[in-house]
UniProtKB/TrEMBL annotation, chains A, B:
<dbReference type="InterPro" id="IPR000740">
    <property type="entry name" value="GrpE"/>
</dbReference>
<comment type="similarity">
    <text>Belongs to the GrpE family.</text>
</comment>
<dbReference type="InterPro" id="IPR013805">
    <property type="entry name" value="GrpE_CC"/>
</dbReference>
<dbReference type="Pfam" id="PF01025">
    <property type="entry name" value="GrpE"/>
</dbReference>
<comment type="subunit">
    <text>Homodimer.</text>
</comment>
<protein>
    <recommendedName>
        <fullName>Protein GrpE</fullName>
    </recommendedName>
</protein>
<dbReference type="InterPro" id="IPR009012">
    <property type="entry name" value="GrpE_head"/>
</dbReference>
<keyword id="KW-0963">Cytoplasm</keyword>
<comment type="function">
    <text>Participates actively in the response to hyperosmotic and heat shock by preventing the aggregation of stress-denatured proteins, in association with DnaK and GrpE. It is the nucleotide exchange factor for DnaK and may function as a thermosensor. Unfolded proteins bind initially to DnaJ; upon interaction with the DnaJ-bound protein, DnaK hydrolyzes its bound ATP, resulting in the formation of a stable complex. GrpE releases ADP from DnaK; ATP binding to DnaK triggers the release of the substrate protein, thus completing the reaction cycle.</text>
</comment>
<keyword id="KW-0175">Coiled coil</keyword>
<feature type="coiled-coil region">
    <location>
        <begin position="17"/>
        <end position="44"/>
    </location>
</feature>
<keyword id="KW-0143">Chaperone</keyword>
<keyword id="KW-0346">Stress response</keyword>
Length: 162, 162
């Protein structure tokens, strides 16, 4: 019994030390791998962020090429038939508005709407009979986009109170 | 001596167990924090990636607004003076090419250059006296960008060998 008491605990403790040392080695390995994963993700993100921005720039620029092509065509045809250019340019303008709408920035139509400082920029206030104060009576420069994604506010003339 | 041999090691081993347990707790904590950092970075990246793409889309779209504004102006003035529109539209076209160049996609000028399949798209091959085979003799549709960032290849007519 005395022998067992003397040697028993050390044997158990040695085993426990062995287990703990193994656990330490395992955790050190897991920790190091987690740090490496983090670092790799950080590097990948820096690389991909620039790539994605470039890709989006090229995508959006590419959508405008048909507009530029049609401007070229309108100008070429103008040499033969100057009166045809107005129709051609109207079509190009329509196409440009379609591109903006496709990108999430449709042209706003604000006439008759109440003035909203988050969407509109008042350039003048005028007296208009039978019109509620703050009603938009004229668009001076069109705005594009909506409340969530406003590309440019509409420059407007607003009715003064009667 | 027998006593020392029996009790000495256990005391030392107990101390070692205590140290190892503390090391295990510390490593578990560091590992957990590294995992949490990784997860947070992953989530932040997903969020910011969409935000950055949106921002780049809006930035590029915004560069085209003056072009659209000037198309509008050219059309407005056309009503008063139809002949003025050609000059106006030429200016708008120049402005559009400036926007493309600013985005990193200048219009290419390829006439006289040797055909390069990474930059050009041959739409026809013609016999041209005194011109080396493979020389670009005409641009059918302009290309934009350079070798590194080509937005669109130039559609060209190429000289056949004599």
């Amino acid at each position: 019994m005395t022998d067992e008491q003397a040697t028993g605990p050390p044997a158990e403790e040695s085993a426990e030390i062995g287990e703990l040392q193994a656990r330490v080695a395992e955790l050190e390995d897991q920790w190091r791998r987690a740090l490496a994963d983090f670092d790799n993700l950080r590097k990948r993100v820096a690389r991909e962020s620039a790539t994605q921005r470039d890709a989006e720039r090229a995508r959006v620029a590419g959508l405008w090429l048909p507009v530029v092509d049609n401007l070229d065509l309108a100008l070429e045809h103008a040499a033969d038939d100057p009166s045809a250019i107005v129709e051609g340019v109207r079509a190009v303008r329509k196409q440009a508005l379609d591109v903006l709408a496709k990108l999430g920035f449709p042209q706003r139509s604000d006439v008759g709407e109440p003035f909203d400082p988050t969407l509109h920029e008042a350039v003048a206030v005028v007296s208009v009979p039978d019109t509620a104060a703050g009603t938009i009576v004229q668009v001076v420069r069109p705005g594009y986009g909506d409340g969530e994604h406003l590309l440019r506010p509409t420059a407007v003339v607003v009715a003064k109170g009667d």
